[in-house]
Amino acid sequence: MVDLTAYSVKLKKMVAIKDPELVTLKNGRKAVRGVAAEDPSSKVIRIVSDKQAEEIGTLG
C-alpha cells in the first residue's frame, strides 16, 4: 500500500492524508489531494510518481 502522507504548512509537520483524491496538475504531473487527518480545515497535496499514481488509482 502507498504511504499517503504530506507536509502541512499550517501544522508544520507531516500528516496523513484523509479522503485522498488523485488529480492531474496543469503541467501533467499526478498528485494526491486531500485534507490533513489531524485538522480537517487544513488542505494538503503531494506530487506522486506515475507508478504510485497507478497504485492509488487501483485502490480507489
| Side-by-side strand order of the widest sheet | 1-2-3-4
Q: Report how far the terminal alpha carbons are from each other.
A: 12 Å
Radius of gyration: 11 Å
Instruction: Find the structural class using helix and strand composition.
Output: alpha+beta
Q: β content, as a range? A: over 45%
Inertia-based shape? globular
Give the tally of structural domains. Answer: 1
Counting H and I runs of at least 4 residues, what is the number of helices? 1
Global mean pLDDT: 91
Low-confidence stretches: none
The ordered H/E elements are EEEEH
Number of strands: 4
Largest sheet: 4 strands, antiparallel
Properties at a glance:
alpha+beta; 60 residues; 4-stranded antiparallel β-sheet
